[in-house]
Amino acid sequence: MFSGLETALAHPPEKRSETPPLQFVSEYVRQLAEIDEIRSDFDRQMGARKGPEEAFSISSYSFTRMSLELKSQTAILARMHLNEPFAFLIPSLTEMYSEKIVIFRRLLEIDRAMLQGPKDGVDYGKMSSEIPELRAKLDDIDNSILKVTPAVFMSLIDSRPDSQNHLSHLVITRGERAQLLEYIETSFGDKLNQKNPPYLVGVAVVLRDGLLKDYKCADEPWD
Questions:
Q1: Residue 25 dihedral angles phi and psi, to the nearest 5°
Q2: Which pLDDT score is estimated for 65?
Q3: Fewer CB within 10 Å, N side or C side of the chain?
Q4: Residues 99 and 141 sit within 8 Å (Cβ to Cβ)
Q5: 8 Å CB contact between 153 and 210
Q6: Which residues, 6+ apart, have CB-to-CB distance to 127 below 8 Å?
Q7: Which pTM value belongs to this model?
Q8: Which residues fall within 8 angstroms of residue 131, CB to CB, at 6 or more apart?
Q9: Chain centroid to CA 178
């Protein structure tokens, strides 16, 4: 009667090993930079467009790139695992990425309908009015990603307190911190110094500023 339960108890699921926090944060930065580059490329092309038809073509291309990139990023994150108290981060991020994919697919459907030209029974006015709502939802998701980013940085902080009972060390070395800082600054460049940066650039700013704080590194003495 209880053979299924007995089997499960005898062979519990294998505990997943934790992804090194530096690997996770580095991948997080890479993903943000890829999405920001697609967005920047979209803005550049839209600025040079020559008419509404070309605009729909540009946005269709961009929305397709976004969907494919987010799908790839979701798959990469799904292979990672963080222990408590940061176990929630990866499932939260993949859920938000999945929500963005759905929105970009809907935007792509609208673009394709517009490019195909008038058809009977299609409410183009309704579709056009849907676009601002979808863009607002994307902004809201990006804002949510920004809000969880302090926890992403905190995954780099050593949970062991020093003699003053402070969390004063990172789990990465001085060289690793320097490399991560350089990676962020190279990936985002002058955008990091914008007064009101887009949400995802703001994420990079949060990580950079955290790394610039006076935390000691794993290869520095403990007090």
A1: -65, -40
A2: 96
A3: N
A4: yes
A5: yes
A6: 110, 113, 114
A7: 0.87
A8: 107, 110
A9: 22
- What pLDDT sits at residue 48? 80
Phi and psi at residue 219, to the nearest 5°: -100, 20
- Terminal-residue alpha carbon distance, the chain: 58
Q: How far is CA 77 from the centre of its chain?
A: 10
**b/e map of 65-93 (b: 16 or more CB within 10 Å)?**
bbbebbeebbeebeebbbeeebeebbeeb
Check: CB of residue 69 under 8 Å from CB of residue 36.
no
> Within 10 Å of residue 142's Cβ, how many Cβ atoms?
21
**Contact criterion met (CB below 8 Å) for 134 and 103:** yes
Q: What is the identity of the amino acid at 129?
A: S
SS3 category, 170: strand
Q: Rounded to whole angstroms, what are the CA distances from 104 to 70, 116, 139, 220?
A: 10, 18, 12, 46
Q: Which tokens sit at 101?
A: 């994919």
Structure tokens, 24: 């996770």
Decide: helix, strand or coil at residue 216.
Answer: strand
